[in-house]
Design brief:
MetI-like fold, about 290 residues, mainly alpha, elongated, about 70% helix, 11 helices
Length: about 290
């Protein structure tokens, strides 16, 4: 997929050369994503209103992505679908990051039995078939955008939890933590005042790099019929609808939404690399 391993919210080393190049690419990616969101907010009925006289029109100057079976502009529908995916990804990734932070603090700062419970939860969640778990959770909550958010949020925290726990374990032996502990500060105080601020860079990068997974899984669940409602312009819905017409030569119905989804995933990967470069002193080469 991208530079991120499956469900792993850790950025690899920058791949775009120098620090400036990484930051420029990240800024361009962020600007492109912001433009998609702005279009979705300002486009009104574009991509929603039907126009039967223009149904299944191939890509042209008037309709760069063509139109669908109801004459709706595919460019507008694709951009609105991406904006919806961003919203789902934001809530799901935020929920998963919060879960990872809380569990990592409990595991590394609490008693040994708490660490054992967290380790068991991590291993159990990672040992389950991921797609099946997503489908079961989404189905249990009745489908729709909220169910997708819950499903993704409850399944994407294990790897980030392990990473944050390892960071906290390294901090436990720091001198200022030992001094704070000798002064009688509680584990909750130490976790809040000493551990949590140190984890901000990892949390930011982890949050951004969970977006691609959340977006892809939202599209996958919707494509399989367990996600967002078919009446909503979403990437998974567009790809599912395109299957009826691809054999008839209407290639644009599946090509452009798929490419848009791929570009969004790569954009979040670039932003994650940019954040890692800014927050990691070791990536400060000029």
């Amino acid at each position: 997929m991208t530079a991120v391993a499956d469900d792993c919210p850790v950025a690899a080393a920058p791949r775009f050369g120098t620090r400036k190049a990484v930051l420029v690419v990240a800024a361009l990616a962020a600007a492109g994503l912001a433009a998609v969101i702005a279009f979705a907010l300002l486009s009104g009925e574009a991509g929603v209103a039907t126009a039967f006289r223009a149904r299944l029109v191939a890509p042209s100057f008037a309709h760069p992505f063509g139109t669908d079976a109801l004459g709706r502009d595919m460019l507008a529908r694709t951009l609105k679908g991406l904006a919806l995916s961003f919203r789902v990804g934001l809530f799901a990734a935020t929920a998963s990051t919060i879960i990872a932070l809380v569990l990592a603090l409990v595991a590394a700062s609490g008693p040994r039995w708490a660490d054992a419970i967290v380790a068991y939860l991590v291993d159990m969640t990672m040992g389950l078939p991921h797609l099946v778990l997503l489908i079961l959770i989404s189905f249990a909550f009745g489908g729709g955008a909220n169910a997708v958010i819950i499903a993704v949020g409850l399944t994407h925290w294990p790897r980030l939890t392990r990473i944050l726990r390892a960071e906290i374990l390294q901090l436990r032996g720091a001198e200022y933590v030992t001094v704070s502990r000798n002064f009688g500060k509680s584990p909750l105080y130490i976790a809040r005042q000493h551990f949590a601020p140190h984890l901000v860079p990892q949390l930011l990068v982890g949050l951004v790099l969970m977006f691609p997974h959340a977006i892809l899984h939202e599209a996958g669940l919707t494509f399989l019929g367990f996600g967002i409602e078919p009446t909503t312009p979403a990437i998974g819905v567009l790809l599912s609808e395109s299957l009826r017409y691809l054999t008839a030569g209407k290639w644009w119905l599946g090509l452009f939404p798929g490419l848009a989804l791929l570009m969004a995933v790569l954009a979040f990967d670039a932003i994650g690399n940019g954040l890692r470069t800014m927050t990691d002193p070791r990536g400060s080469q000029s």
